[in-house]
Fold these 4 entries.
Entry 1:
Amino acid sequence: MVLHDETFARVLRARDAIHARYAEPLRLDELAREAALSPFHFLRIFRSAFGETPHQYLTRVRIEAAKRLLLADAPVTDVCFEVGFQSLGSFSALFARRVGSPPTAFRRRVHHFAFGVQRVYVPHCYVEAFSQF
């Protein structure tokens, strides 16, 4: 499908709205209104322009934002709600499907890769007991 410049500009406005307000609950009719198109027409044009539905695009934007927050060591629960998900369980399951590992494992894997050292918790009593040797 070939998009006219004006139609493509309208769809870009809706895409920009997704990036600006991804943490809010965005519905198809709101995004279509942003593009000044009917919801059905907007859905078809958006999918044609970006290769995925507005919902899939929104989910991808939210997951990318979640990755950034997780790497900044934000708590998983806070990340879940901050990027616009309503359920921690749903967020974790979706994150694992899309990224390949649950949020905490993703953070550990990236930190391990970036720093080359895996953090290990050693109780203070062991440090004290074995530091005398």
Entry 2:
Amino acid sequence: MSVTVQQRRIHSPVQQDTAIFLETAAESGGRRTLLEIELAPGGSNAPHRHLSYDERFVALEGELTVRVDGLLHLLQPGAEATARAGVVHCFANETDEPVRFQVALAPGHRGFEQALQIGYGLAQDGLTNDNGIPKSLVHAGLLMQMGEMRVTGPMRALTPLLGLLARWGRRRGADAVLIERYVRY
């Protein structure tokens, strides 16, 4: 049975965005993961980096603010910015109108796809804080490892602890429970 665009749509009430999976890593033969994002005014994510994949942002509607390695990019429709693997980046909608943009990961990353679905599901269920971070440190560690994502700033000091908690959670099947509950494709 094929999956419709509506079934591929996830929403985070915390991050104030909606993501649509246009192409998964499996569908692209591992070449990419492709998403379309609609970000509400004031919506954003925290500075972070990915260990093994690049992330390219292409503005479709409105003005998207992207910071890559400390450089500010104001993307108008058709403009793009790329954060290479290991480079700190984040995005925001600093306007009064919704912004629509595409995000392409290269190579595609199944763990990121799962972590995004789980993170948005946890947010919908009220299981994240106001920054979208899971209230459970085990869940936070699992998502960090699934998506090969690392935070920056003061939270960076928690990375070793979150890694330990993720390993502990995997041994107890917490990752399987999250995947069963939240991952749909």
Entry 3:
Amino acid sequence: MSALPEKRWTVEEYLAFERASEERHEFINGQIYLMSGASRKHNLIVFNLALALGNQLRGKGCETYLNEMRVKIPSTNNYTYPDVTIVCGEDAELEDDEFDTLLNPILIVEVLSPSTENYDRGKKFQSYRTLASLREYVLVSQDKQQIEHYIRQDDGQWLLSDTTDIDAIVTLPSINCTLKLADVYENINFEAE
């Protein structure tokens, strides 16, 4: 991600700018950052995730959004574009009548890229943890077969499970679904690139 020219933007300025833009930008601490293009592997993994989760969520009253639904983090006034965002149960809470900014995700998935991996693991996750609705955070590597799965515990702590076994199944209790690593990494050849 690269920042636009140095300027302190207001939320209103950001939203007006973003809604008029053909490109996607995240809003972090008063700065606007252009989202870089995703790699082939990244796009394939996001598609595989959507396919695996979408099929399981049919008829369950959940909505799945792929990297075009903005999420607002009220505690920081930041706006992000997760790779996969899911909201279940009650209707999605949206910021305004533009219907393009979600406030209550239950599960967020980020596919790690070299340019965003540290941010996704660090400050971004720190911000996401302030969302009262968020129950699970999933990090999917695009450089190797690995899924890191964080679950919010009843006491507010986050429990990490990490798997690299291609035959493993990650259970996602907040949405009553599973992810098979083999499905997530279908058609991904790590040796070819």
Entry 4:
Amino acid sequence: MSPVRELELADGAPARCCTPVAEPGLTIEEAATTARLFKALADPHRLRIINVLATSGGSVCGCDLEEPLGLSQATVSFHLKKLFDAGLLDREKRGVWVYYSLNREAVTRLGDVLRFDRRR
């Protein structure tokens, strides 16, 4: 199984970042990094992929996403790459197949970004 990756964006900027939006003083750089993460999620197909992986109980072969999503292999691969590059997915190659799972640490940190119940 692949190790847990640090949440990274495709441009290499670490997204251990993501200052919660409820915290004062969000810089333009922090806002831009967070926006890139949300951009990776701003597609209905990608949200459905996240949903399938979140409810699967484990890793899923990319080939097994075509039928439930009603998408071609190329389209599924495109969306998986976007989510992987955003650091939201882990992947593991098994022979010729690639299996994907949610990067739970990244998803938890992303959830913390929108937590508004923080008290100072």
